UniProtKB/TrEMBL annotation:
Name this polypeptide is given: FeS assembly scaffold protein SufA
Biological process terms in GO annotation: iron-sulfur cluster assembly
One GO cellular component, as annotated: cytosol
Residues covered by the Core domain: 21-118
SUPFAM superfamilies linked to this entry: HesB-like domain
Transmembrane segments: none
Amino acid sequence: MENNAGVTTEVSLASMTWQGVTLTPSAAKQVASLTKAGQCFYLSVRTSGCTGYAYDIKMIEQPKDDDLTFESHGVTIFVALKAMPFVDGTEIDYVRQGLNQVFIYTNPNVKNVCGCGESFGV
């Protein structure tokens, strides 16, 4: 990155200040029920679909050293550092609609979503 004086500066994801990722009470309850003893709720993104990225949720045994940790409604969330520019400020909700159950992401960074809802772009 170059500033007005023509000096190149480097910005590190690890040195940034993040808003974080939060859960609604409904999502926190669901995450707590999904995580077995010794597992962690992990959020990242992967390339997918026609608009670029998809949310990637996993249950992992151990977070990586550069993963970020957020606490929401008594539940710990681990987020991949490389995913933070895409998910920072996101609130995750859990909704039941008839027989369907789904996590809903309210992400302020999203600029477009594909028609089927599979992917998003920032």
